[in-house]
Every structure is written in C-alpha cells, then in structure tokens.
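Good morning C.,

I know you're traveling, so I'll keep this short. The sequence:
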Amino acid sequence: MSATKIDNLLGAKMRFILPAAIAGSVILTACVDQSFFVKQGVTYDRYERDYVQCSTVAAQKVPVNTQIGWAPYVGIYSTDTNAALRMKNFELCMRDKRYQQVKIPYCSGEKAKAATEQMKLPSRRSTKMKITPQTCYISDPSGRPHLYSPDA
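The tokens, ready to paste straight into the viewer:
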C-alpha cells in the first residue's frame, strides 16, 4: 500500500475517531456523580436563598484575583489564585447553615425520564427537599441541576 493511501486511510479514521472521542468525553462528564449541599426538609426557596447568600458572602470576603502567566506548550493563561479560598468560604457558610455536602449520581434509565417530566412541572419553590438513597440529578437545558427523589 502506498504512503498516500495509508495517509488517506489514517486521515479518514482520525476524522471519525476525534469527533467521537470529544462527544464521548462530553457525555461522560455530564453523567458523573456531583457534590451538592443538601438539608432534609428545607424548602427549595430557602435553599436557593442560602446558596446565593453564601456565594455572595464568599465573593465579598475573597474577591477574584486574576493572575496572567505564560507556560511552555500552553502559552498565555490566566488563573484566579483566590478560587480555592473563596470556595472554602462558601462551603463553611453552607455548613454553618446546617447543610451537608453529599455526592449524588446522575439519573439514568427510568429515573432520568421521570426526573425530566418532573422538571417540566411548575416551580417547586415551596416543596421540601427530601434526599434518599435513590436521589439522583439531571441538568436542565441551561445546565442547572435538578434533584430528583423517586419516592418524594
């Protein structure tokens, strides 16, 4: 087989493999366990208020500190050197409000279908959070997570 034919064959395979690998990595990152702060019996309205308040307080206590650098094979990059400390402040605030950080799996199969249907219902602000061993999450079109408990 000539070098040109081999190059054409490899090129065709790479044009198929690369998009498939990228799509697969996007799908896998959407389907992994994710950490959430939860508190049994709290309404979703109270949860949202606590979450926003803790985010705001953490941002006020530890502002963004963007540093710009250069590295070989990367080039120019920027990083927020305060991100980890700001996240720790957020976590402490949520724990002070009696929330626990837990990992919740991504919904699959029948639970994913039921969660999607539940997500389409009118706002659940007055609904109380109930976390069970069967709780899972899905993401709405904007990427916002939606917790689903089959027996809640």
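Safe travels,
E.
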